[in-house]
Specification:
Layout lengths: L3 H4 E9 L8 E2 L2 E5 L3 E2 L13 E5 H10 L14 E4 L10 E4 L2 E8 L5 H5 L3 H5 L7 E7 L1 E4 L3 E6 L10
Parallel strand pairs: 5-6
Antiparallel strand pairs: 1-2, 1-6, 1-11, 3-4, 3-10, 5-9, 7-8, 7-11, 8-9
């Protein structure tokens, strides 16, 4: 059973990028829409099942430490939202509320080769235990601001595929 400490936390980072390969731009607040994800971010409208990516600071710190650079900026992960003190769902169908915004988890954020461009070994360090965070589609839009409450409303059991 999850405790309240596992299902509530806070939004401590918001970032977006205007185009592919552009650096992430940190912002204090932003508008999120069902049609386009985080306003000003190039991915939301193009990828309806990956409109928003959410990363937990605790998982990021573990990955950065494992890759040998514990002070690496979280924006190297290229996630939109950085949260703390909340255990993100580890299965599709999970539901998060961040401020006014309602998000449905569609998948684990699978680390791509660009992670190793940021730091050799980061891709491998992000892979275990969903350290790379989750991808989400927007169910309800609204405003998000640093410090907003983060709540896990639905957390389905993690599906683990075991080979024979």
């Amino acid at each position: 059973m999850q405790s309240d400490a596992d299902i509530t936390g806070h939004l401590i980072g918001i970032a977006r990028r205007a185009a592919r390969l552009e650096p992430m731009q940190e912002i204090q607040s932003g508008k999120v829409t069902v049609a386009g994800g985080l306003e000003g971010d190039h991915k939301g409208a193009k990828f309806p099942n990956r409109q928003i990516t959410v990363l937990a600071i605790e998982a990021w710190r573990e990955a950065a430490q494992a890759a040998g650079e514990p002070t690496l900026a979280w924006t190297a992960r290229r996630a939109n939202f950085l949260v703390e003190d909340v255990h993100l769902p580890r299965a599709a169908g999970g539901v998060l509320r961040i401020g006014e915004v309602l998000l449905e988890v569609t998948s684990q954020t699978v680390p791509c080769r660009r992670m190793d461009d940021a730091l050799t070994g980061l891709r491998k360090a992000l892979h275990p235990d969903w350290r790379g965070g989750v991808t989400c589609k927007v169910l309800e839009g609204g405003q998000v601001t640093l410090g907003d409450r983060v709540e896990v409303l639905v957390s389905p059991p993690q599906r683990v595929i075991r080979l024979p």
